[in-house]
């Protein structure tokens, strides 16, 4: 998930803990569930390479750049380690059809036969390169919107956090959508097709026009809300269940935090996956020989007519397979970077 600095009130294990009270309510009369956002901080530090994730909370105390740098490094390492699964996901999304029902092993075999083992990391360069602007824009907008809607002191409740986080993600994606298109093209490129990122950009603009850099923008925007709603709702539900269980409430382990965030992230990706698939197909239409330039609704209808509703989830297997390692790697690197930078 998005990167966010931790508050004070940490346990010896480094996990934030709310005050301990025997009753179900705090001294001010509010239910303890109101403080759940501080109890499981792992959701703030995970990077699975999926751009629809919304920021949760940023406390700009101390050097914010250290937290952003830690998050960027965590994302870079995580995305590089899981790049083969990401590429086979895109490959299955674009090239799977009624006559070519690619599976995970078939996709991996096809890519290795075409370009060798190193071809599994095609597109990873631009995927890592876009982390810095994506994080910087997303968190800057989140902080400005949070202050506008919630003031300087009050932490946003669920509804406002959802609104502000979704708005930040939408603005961020509007600005970096060209990089998303380039990432898709570089990921799918054949051996020798593009001589670099700038060459790829020039070829797209020359052959398809500058508007091609915003292919897939509509499903991209529409996918933010189901992803954010599902992600945050599942995370809140897991927090509530943990609080209700009463087990080690004052110090939930890092494993509990990481597991909760990973499950919430997975549910968010599944909820928005059909729109993610359509977005990728729109971005890659010029890569498919003889492919017509279809609109979002036309692609939906074509997939449903040829493959049924299952076709809307082509490539979901590698997507889900990369969640756990991506979350584990990004969490570990993020904590190591914070320690190195003295955060």
Automatic annotation (TrEMBL):
Catalytic activity: Mg(2+)(out) + phosphate(in) + ATP(out) = Mg(2+)(in) + phosphate(out) + ATP(in)
Keyword Mitochondrion recorded: yes
Localisation per UniProt entry: Mitochondrion inner membrane
Organism: Cavia porcellus
Family: Belongs to the mitochondrial carrier (TC 2.A.29) family.
UniProt GO MF annotations: ADP transmembrane transporter activity; ATP transmembrane transporter activity
Membrane topology: Multi-pass membrane protein
Protein name: Solute carrier family 25 member 41
UniProt cross-references to InterPro entries, sorted A to Z: MCP (IPR002067), MCP_dom_sf (IPR023395), MCP_transmembrane (IPR018108)
One of the GO BP terms on file: mitochondrial ATP transmembrane transport
The keyword Membrane belongs to this UniProt entry's keyword annotation: yes
Top-level division of the source organism's lineage: Eukaryota
Region (Disordered): 1-31
Pfam families linked: Mito_carr (PF00153)
Primary location: mitochondrion
Solcar repeat boundaries on the chain: 62-148, 156-241, 252-340
Bias-annotated ranges (Polar residues): 10-27
Keyword tags: Membrane, Mitochondrion, Mitochondrion inner membrane, Repeat, Transmembrane, Transmembrane helix, Transport
GO cellular component term, pick one: mitochondrial inner membrane
């Amino acid at each position: 998930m998005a990167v966010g600095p931790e508050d004070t009130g940490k346990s010896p294990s480094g996990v934030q803990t709310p005050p301990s009270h025997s009753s179900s309510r705090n001294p001010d009369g509010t239910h303890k569930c109101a403080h759940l956002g501080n109890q499981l901080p792992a959701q703030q530090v995970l990077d699975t390479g999926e751009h629809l994730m919304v920021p949760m909370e940023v406390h700009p105390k101390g050097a914010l750049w250290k937290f952003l740098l830690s998050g960027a490094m965590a994302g870079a390492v995580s995305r590089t380690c899981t790049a083969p699964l990401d590429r086979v996901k895109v490959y299955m999304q674009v090239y799977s059809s009624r006559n070519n029902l690619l599976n995970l092993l078939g996709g991996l075999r096809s890519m290795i036969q075409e370009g060798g083992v190193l071809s599994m990391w095609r597109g990873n360069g631009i995927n890592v390169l876009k982390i810095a602007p994506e994080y910087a824009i997303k968190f800057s907008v989140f902080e400005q919107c949070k202050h506008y809607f919630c003031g300087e002191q009050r932490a946003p409740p669920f509804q406002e956090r959802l609104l502000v986080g979704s708005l930040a993600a939408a603005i961020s994606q509007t600005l970096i959508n060209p990089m998303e298109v380039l990432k898709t093209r570089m990921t799918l490129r054949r051996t020798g097709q593009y001589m670099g990122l700038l060459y790829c950009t020039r070829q797209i603009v020359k052959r398809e026009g500058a508007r091609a850099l915003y292919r897939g923008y509509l499903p991209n925007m529409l996918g933010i809300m189901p992803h954010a709603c599902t992600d945050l709702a599942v995370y809140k539900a897991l927090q509530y269940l943990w609080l209700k269980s009463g087990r080690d409430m004052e110090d939930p382990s890092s494993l509990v935090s990481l597991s909760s965030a990973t499950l919430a992230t997975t549910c968010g990706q599944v909820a928005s996956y059909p729109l993610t698939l359509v977005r990728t197909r729109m971005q890659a239409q010029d890569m498919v020989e003889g492919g017509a330039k279809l609109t979002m609704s036309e692609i939906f209808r074509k997939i449903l007519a040829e493959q049924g509703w299952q076709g809307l989830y082509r490539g979901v297997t590698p997507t889900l397979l990369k969640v756990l390692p991506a979350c584990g790697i990004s969490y570990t690197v993020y904590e190591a970077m914070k320690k190195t930078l003295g955060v």
